[in-house]
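Anyone able to model this chain together with S-adenosylmethionine?
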Amino acid sequence: MTLGERAAALFGVQLSAEQEAQFTTYARLLVEWNAHVNLTAISDEEGIEVRHFLDSLSVVKALPPRPDLRLIDVGTGAGFPGLPLRIALPHVRLTLLEATGKKLQFVQTVIDTLALSGCDTLHARAEEAAHLPAQRGQYDVVLARAVARLPALVEYLLPFAKVGGRCIALKGTTAQAEAADARRALALLGGRLAAVHTLRLPGVADEHALVVVEKTVPTPAIYPRKPGIPTRKPL
Ligand code: SAM
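re: yes, here you go
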């Protein structure tokens, strides 16, 4: 099965031949760069396709049904889950935020090589970027995978979301427990747990989950706290 056939069967995502070719180029660049920059522990073809590309595309299950969404991917690393979503959904506008400059150079190289429009990179820590007027409260959807446990993560993510927007965290088997631990943080930050969608990826034993948090009221200006505090002292 091709990536397009798998994406269609699993998530109803349709990829053109050109989009499939973009994924092939992305995978090639990832393997090339990974030889000298520490981007990912997963560098075999099947692993990249399933654990990076399909896992990222699973987010479509939790997106609002509108084509012109404004998205930010916080702690994007080598571009996951943001870039696969942008390749599959050309009408979204995407900001890719990452604290490590070398990783963001890779992301920018993918954007330039694939000529992806509507993509911005932001070299910053989430705790600082979320206080910038151009970033705070600006996004329909705020994404993150493998950045922090949910009680700290929601302090990074919720300030970026518009009221009525949502945060989507890609999680593993600990999703429900993390969501329960994040209850107090959500109440303080203006969020509400909306859903936990579980899903399976081909050949992957552990269940994956999309934790969806809705932003109900503006986040108080004191959040996020200074860099490092949300993970050291979760709310
Ligand atoms: N999201 C990517 C993925 O799933 O493949 C990368 C995951 S990697 C384990 C976590 C990334 O988050 C790292 O690249 C790290 O630099 C970034 N990160 C962690 N805390 C951050 C913060 N407070 N602000 C910005 N980036 C952060």
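The pocket of S-adenosylmethionine is lined by residues 75-78, 80, 97-100, 103, 125-127, 145-147, 156 (CB under 6 Å).
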